[in-house]
Every structure is written in structure tokens, then in C-alpha cells.
Recover the amino acids of this structure.
């Protein structure tokens, strides 16, 4: 009898939790601002957890740790800055279409993609709009890597290196100028919304969306992976060419990024697939509990963004840095050692 009461209490608690207004509002925000959520999570972890993990790496040269930590900090800051300046306007423009579909979408599009005028339940429409929102990270990967690489030497000179004061004295003085913040509402937001609506109104895009609508659960995961691969590749190329990064630290920094990305994606996909199977019942329960809520599909979209974001972030920023920093240096020294042997023999 007592066991039944405990079980019922747990069930009641989970029901209240899954109907909690704060939880639902958070999931809606994640759905609307998936890229912003990812960038905010990355910023917080790249400034705290990842550098701490890097500096705890045993048997690794201090300067290699410093470069790895600087890379973590700079990439988090740059990513967040790019998202705030570029991704947010895109997300708001998409949200504008969500609120006023008849203003931006043709009757044919609405009939084809949005059944019974319930835009929140259209998986095809969600697939297209998530591509818009999450695609920002992919399209800005190359400039992000360039800006990150430009910022690393500045952070190294002013935080980690002893010639901090010298760098500051030799650097040109800058004057603080107040920049007018761009207001992405009203006319400009409508322009962006109209631009995206033209793509949505395309028959070819609609056909593709209808064909792959069942893949909407995986779009966040795939876009994250594609962005990470492009970002790592771009960073490796830019680092190898950089004159600002110490020559004897370049390879370790590149190997660190490559190892981190490879293991993160491999483990991330594996863990996500396992969790996705296990969470199928959870999602069904969530849908059942919130069946009368018209935004239930948007909440589920938020769950589908949240799940891989936390998994990939947890691996990349929490678990992996200690291993990748250690292995990057060992790989660098191993290759250098054998390269020197080959040159000696020749």
C-alpha cells in the first residue's frame, strides 16, 4: 500500500513538473531561439568548465594548456557575439512568420504545409524554419574561426604571457565609441520575414520538407555536427597559416581541436541515439499530459533541440578537454620525434 502511495506521489509530481509553466515557457524559448540557447550554453561552459578541465590535464606543458584554454574562451565569446548580432534577427524573423503566416505565406503554401491552420503542428514547416535558425551557426563558422584565431594572441599576451604590460603599452589606444544598437523589429524584421517566406513558398523546398518531415527530431543534431566539422577544419587551416600563434604550439592546438571534434561527434551521436530511444516514452507521456495545450508541438521541438545540445556540450566542454589536451601534445611530440628521425636518416 505504501509503495503504491509513493508511486502515485512520484507520478503526480512528474505530471505537475511536465505541466509547469516555467518548464513549458523555457522549452518554447529554446524552440524559438535554438541557436541562441546553444551559444549561451557554449559561452558559459567555455569560460568556466572547459578551461578548468584543460588546466587539470596532467603531464602536459603549461603553454599548450594556456593556448587550449585561450581557444576555449575566445571561441565561446566570438560564437555568442555572432549569434547575438546575426542569429537573433533571423530567429525573430521566423517567429514573425509563425505569428502571421497569412501575411507572409501563400495560400498554396499554407494548404501544403500547414494543416488546419495549426502552424505549431506542422513538422514540414518546423523542419524548414529550424534549418533557417540553426543554419546560422554553419554559415558563420568560417568567420567565427578567423575571429577566434585573431583573439587568441591578444588573450595570451594580456592574460597568460609575462610580457603583458609590454603588449598593452605597444598596442594602439582605442577610443570608446557608443554604437547604436540595431533594432530588428518593424520594417527590417518584416523584410527578413519576407525573404524567408519566399524560400518557404518554393514548391521544391516544400516537397523536400514534406519528404523529410520525420527527420525534424534530428535536424539540431545534424546541423551541430556539420557546423563543428566546418569550424574545426577552418580553424585548423587558419591556425597553420597564422603568424600570431607560436610555431611550436600550432600543431598541438590543431590536434586538440580535431581530437575534440571527432570524439564529441562520435560519442554524441552514440549517446543521443541511445537516449532518443529511451526518451520516446517520455515524449509520448509529455504529449499526453499537455494534449490540450496548442503549443505542445513547439515544446517537443524544444526538447529535440535541448537533448543533443546538452549531450554535445557536456562531452565537449566537460568530459573531453582533459583527454584531448593530453593526447594533442603526445601526438604532436610523437610526430615531431619520428619526423626528426626521418630527416636524420636522410
Amino acid at each position: 500500500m505504501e509503495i503504491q502511495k509513493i508511486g502515485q506521489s512520484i507520478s503526480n509530481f512528474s505530471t505537475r513538473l511536465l505541466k509547469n509553466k516555467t518548464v513549458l515557457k523555457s522549452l518554447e524559448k529554446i524552440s524559438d531561439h535554438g541557436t541562441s540557447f546553444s551559444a549561451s550554453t557554449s559561452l558559459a561552459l567555455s569560460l568556466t568548465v572547459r578551461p578548468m578541465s584543460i588546466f587539470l590535464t596532467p603531464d602536459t606543458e603549461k603553454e599548450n594548456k594556456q593556448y587550449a584554454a585561450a581557444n576555449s574562451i575566445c571561441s565561446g565569446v566570438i560564437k555568442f557575439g555572432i549569434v547575438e548580432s546575426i542569429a537573433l534577427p533571423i530567429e525573430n524573423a521566423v517567429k514573425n512568420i509563425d505569428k502571421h503566416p497569412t501575411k507572409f505565406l501563400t495560400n498554396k503554401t499554407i494548404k501544403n504545409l500547414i494543416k488546419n491552420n495549426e502552424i505549431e503542428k506542422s513538422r514540414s514547416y518546423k523542419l524548414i524554419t529550424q534549418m533557417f535558425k540553426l543554419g546560422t551557426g554553419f554559415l558563420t563558422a568560417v568567420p567565427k574561426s578567423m575571429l577566434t584565431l585573431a583573439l587568441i594572441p591578444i588573450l595570451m599576451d594580456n592574460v597568460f604571457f609575462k610580457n603583458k604590460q609590454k603588449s598593452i603599452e605597444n598596442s594602439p589606444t582605442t577610443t570608446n565609441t557608443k554604437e547604436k544598437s540595431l533594432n530588428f523589429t518593424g520594417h527590417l524584421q518584416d523584410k527578413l520575414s519576407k525573404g524567408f517566406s519566399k524560400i518557404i513558398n518554393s514548391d521544391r523546398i516544400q516537397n523536400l520538407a514534406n519528404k523529410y518531415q520525420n527527420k525534424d527530431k534530428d535536424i539540431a543534431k545534424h546541423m551541430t555536427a556539420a557546423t563543428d566539422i566546418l569550424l574545426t577544419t577552418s580553424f585548423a587551416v587558419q591556425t597553420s597559416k597564422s603568424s600570431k600563434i607560436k610555431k611550436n604550439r600550432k600543431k598541438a592546438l590543431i590536434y586538440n581541436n580535431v581530437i575534440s571534434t571527432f570524439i564529441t561527434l562520435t560519442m554524441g551521436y552514440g549517446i543521443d541515439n541511445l537516449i532518443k530511444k529511451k526518451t520516446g516514452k517520455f515524449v509520448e507521456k509529455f504529449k499526453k499530459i499537455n494534449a490540450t495545450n496548442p503549443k505542445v508541438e513547439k515544446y517537443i521541438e524544444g526538447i529535440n533541440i535541448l537533448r543533443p545540445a546538452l549531450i554535445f556540450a557536456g562531452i565537449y566542454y566537460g568530459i573531453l578537454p582533459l583527454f584531448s589536451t593530453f593526447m594533442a601534445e603526445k601526438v604532436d611530440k610523437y610526430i615531431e620525434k619520428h619526423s626528426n628521425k626521418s630527416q636524420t636518416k636522410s
User: Anything to note?
Assistant: The longest helix spans residues 62-99. The CA atoms of residues 5 and 11 lie 10 Å apart.
